[in-house]
Design goal:
82% of the residues lie in helices and 0% in strands. By secondary structure, it is mainly alpha-helical. This is Tetratricopeptide (TPR) repeat protein.
Length: 277
Amino acid sequence: MPDQDDLARGEELARRGMQLADAGDQHGALPLMRDAVQCVRPLAAVDPAAEIRLAVFLHDLGLVLAWLGRPAEAVTPIAEAVAVYRRRLATGADPATIRFLLASSLDSLGTRLAALGHHRESLRATEESVAHYRKSATANRTLPVLELARALNNLSIRYADVEQHQEALAASRESVDLLRRVPVTDRHHLSSLAHATTNLALRLAKLEQHAEVPAVIDEAMKLIRRLPEPHPRSQLAALAESLTWLAWYLRTEGRVLRARSARRAAAALRRRLATER
């Protein structure tokens, strides 16, 4: 028979696992997250509250797998979490909380699918995520704007993946605007703003809106220099790749000094990647 103590054990395992993951030790976090899922799964079949916790743990397990560079494995637990939240939302139980959790998992699922090259599926998941975040914001004005802003930045990238560049720019502008409205008070906000601003520079450059690009790149590089350690390797690599492309773009536009700065910033990120390996 499932034991209520299993829920407490699962919570503790998940807490320790995500604590390790946040500190950069994804390898140490992975077995703890797997154990948390196994602890709670039997109870989830008979206890609705435990089923929600199972979905939370599945989502976090997927994140850890993704941070380890294993997106194909990450899809399965995140997709299961999405299925749980959809089922619970359909029952009408605690819709505000469930909708918010569903939006988060859909956003994560979209990112994993994109990493596997499934761009249309990824776009659908991310569009749905943003729609749920907007509904949550309408129902609850205290919804943290950071979550919606992060999803919008991801939506911008998903649009770019399928060559919908005007839509990508619109989503990127909205994301950066939301993030700029709120004072930067923690590393997660700083990270989101750095990534979103870099993405905005890319979107502007792709659409040849040359006048705006240099100032946005300058802002992005200042934010990137402030990024805390540790930082997910995949995100550092993506920033380095973006800055390398932007350095090329600036050089073609005759902005040699800014191009050199962007190239040096990309090189610094690659050195950091090598150091943190």
